[in-house]
Amino acid sequence: MRPFIVVSAAALVLLTACGGASGGASSGSNGRAAVARAPGKQAGGAQAQNVRLAPAQAIVYTADLTMRSGDVTRAAGQAKSVVAAAGGYVGNENATENPGSRPSATITFKIPSARYQGVLDQLASSRIGTRVSLRQQADDVTQEVADVDSRVKSAKATLASFRKLLAKASDVDDIVQLEQEIAGREADLESLQARQKSLAAQTSYATVTLRLEGTTPTRREHHRSTGFSGAVSSGWHAFAVFVKGVAIVVGWVLPFLGLAVVIGLPAWWLWRRRRSSRSSTA
Q1: What is this structure's pTM?
Q2: What phi and psi, each to the nearest 5 degrees, are found at residue 2?
Q3: Alpha-carbon distance 55 to 205, whole Å?
Q4: Which of 27, 135, 188, 272 is 20–30 Å from 3 (CA)?
Q5: Between the CA of residue 162 and those of 148, 169, 270, 277, what are the distances in Å?
Q6: How far apart are CA 239 and CA 250, in angstroms?
Q7: Which domains are seen in the chain, by residue range?
Q8: Are 146 and 29 in contact (CB under 8 A)?
Q9: Which ranges does the record mark as transmembrane (predicted)?
Q10: Coil, strand or helix at 128
Q11: Which residues is 108 bridged to in the sheet?
Q12: Tens digits of residue pLDDT in 110-162
């Protein structure tokens, strides 16, 4: 029984390798060579026509758009509304608005690929602001999608075959070897499925990174109160400024006062001693 298991496993590995290598090409050629017969009318009767069906392309769209606006918050809100109306969503957002600096925001949008170009045109319109720069990129991953799909299908078939062999195995060594092989194949299949899922997400939704720049620095506004409370507030502010000024002056003079004390005390002591000596002599 054991030689049969080993030979069968080896045959499965070889068949899987050959199937995985040719699967992408065969599936692509089958898709390209798909023939549909459509009735065609000509003089003298009907004649069948061969129509080639091209495979659906898988494109990954990305764009980086920089806009300048006098109101970054308003522009960001309008951009989100445009994307939401198209069935998209915000993938990431980062906004900064510090006093003395120009406000800015960076928003990453996920937009349905079918509506990518129309939404991008709206985001780059004067409704949002003034366009500063725009960079677009389209990557054709049709062949990679077909290859991954083929390898996933082949990996599933191989796993099913190994599990059948495991069910028939009776030798302990064969069982251990088959279980190890199945574990490795399952890990490979999970990796392929993760890549398949990632490609599906990338081709279903385009990625647009919108950078918004403010036109003027943000200023901090100070509101002044009127009446008695305003007078109290102004008086307290003036007193605080005065105390702060006195503290600065004292802090500046203090080192010099210390130096004067260190030098003046010995001098004063000598002067008192000499005066006492003169008084006793007289």
Answers
A1: 0.57
A2: -65, -45
A3: 19
A4: 188
A5: 21, 10, 109, 119
A6: 16
A7: 59-141+206-214 (3.30.70)
A8: no
A9: 249-271
A10: coil
A11: 92, 209
A12: 999 999 999 999 999 989 999 999 999 999 999 999 999 999 999 999 999 99
